[in-house]
Amino acid sequence: MTDGVRAGDVRLGRIGKGVRVAVALAGIGLLINGSVRASDDAWPFGPMSQYAGSVADDAAITFTRISALTDASTTVDVPLNIEGAGVARAEIEARTGEIVKDPSLLQQVADGWARKHPDKPRYVKLELIRDTTQLVKGRVEGPPTSEVLATWEVRK
């Protein structure tokens, strides 16, 4: 062994080092882009907000959901997962501001449901709702309050 190099070891050349640095910088750039844009569309380079964190003892906990009126005159909560309406809850939560500005984005939820469940009642009206639960000293204080953020009449 001479100069810390063992027999059979191969040293990484300038090109190899350059490629590794370029790949690392590209990965870091993608992570920063996804975090700044705060969009789960950039997964796995999206924001870290999708991961759980601790909640203060005196905090408000919000939960975003979509409620649907069906053509069978029933009101249901839309299953926000790939098997349900084809869209995950995290995507809806990440795009809440966009949906509030342009409720027509909810049409994709209705279309996804109809495509995946042609034998089930169709959605005719969708509401994006934010439920808020207040904690006081770490305990739930009263029932959750609901706020309708956006409403969309589904196009046929």
Residue ranges: pLDDT <50 for 5 or more in a row? none
Q: Give the overall shape.
A: elongated
Rg, rounded, reads 24 Å
For the secondary structure, the number of strands is 5
User: DSSP helix count?
Assistant: 4
Give the biggest beta sheet.
Answer: 5 strands, antiparallel
Arithmetic mean pLDDT? 87
Helix content: 25-40%
Spell out the helices and strands N to C: HEEHHHEEE
Cα separation of the termini: 76 Å
Structural class: alpha+beta
Beta-strand fraction estimate: 25-35%
Q: How would you summarize this macromolecular structure in one to three sentences?
A:
Helices cover 29% and strands 25% of the residues.
How would you characterize this protein structure?
The protein is of the alpha+beta class and 156 residues long. 29% of the residues lie in helices and 25% in strands. It is built from four helices and five strands. The chain has helices at 14-37, 89-94, 96-101, 107-116, and strands at residues 60-70, 75-77, 123-136, 139-140, 145-153. Strands 1, 2, 3, 4 and 5 form a five-stranded antiparallel beta sheet that branches. A hairpin with a 4-residue loop joins strand 1 (60-70) and strand 2. The longest helix has 24 residues, at 14-37. The radius of gyration is 24 Å and the shape is elongated. It starts with 13 loop residues before the first helix and ends with a strand.
